[in-house]
Amino acid sequence: MNTTPSGARCTFWKNGALIADVAATPGSVQIRKSKDDLFIVCDKPGYASATFVNKSGLAMATIANVLTAGLAWAVDSSRGADNKYQGEVSMALVPTATPAPIERPYAPPPAAPATVAQPRPAAPPAPPPPAPVAAPAAQQLECAAADGSRIRVSGSACPAGWTVAR
To answer: Strand 17-22 to strand 38-43: parallel, antiparallel, or no bridges (unpaired)?
Structure first.
């Protein structure tokens, strides 16, 4: 598991259950093959959460198993061993806000000379700089599966097979 920038925490989910965790990227975990898709969620302070769906797919060894009388395939298929996931995953995290502008210290107007008979009105203080505009936070959705499990994802839609939780 790699992220840009590095140092993100990534969690690995199957059927709404946490199955693995990388405390800081880059890192690796060993995942058991199954027919279920793998959801990877990476977080780092100052960055929007990123989600990747690692789809479970058929391994090439499955074709050989089917050609050899199909018995080995039937056993592998019942355990999910005929499936595979993408081996190495890389994700880019997006910063959540723009940096605040550097403020200049306030300098009072110069004092009037002592020889002036009439005092001059003081100049009004300079207006404060405008507040920085923060980038919108990434929208978080809670998604539910038919079996009642739930996950939280970034973006505007739930992954395939999941619906927005009410």
So the answer is: unpaired
Kindly report, residue by residue over 6-44, the tens digit of the pLDDT. 999 999 999 889 999 999 999 999 988 888 888 999 999
Give the pairing of strands 83-84 and 90-92.
Answer: unpaired
User: Is there a contact between 17 and 4 (Cβ–Cβ < 8 Å)?
Assistant: no
From residue 125, give the alpha-carbon distance in Å to each of 103, 111, 114.
Answer: 15, 13, 22
pTM: 0.47
Let me know: does 106 contact 126? Beta carbons within 8 Å: yes
Neighbour-count burial of 54, counting CB atoms closer than 10 A to its CB (0-12 exposed, 13-18 middle, 19+ buried)? middle
Residue 25 φ then ψ, to 5°: -80, 150
Other beta carbons within 10 Å of 56 = 19
Bridge partners of 53, per DSSP, are: 39
Q: Which helix (H) or strand (E) covers residue 52, if one does?
A: strand 50-54
In DSSP terms, 154 is beta-bridged to: 140
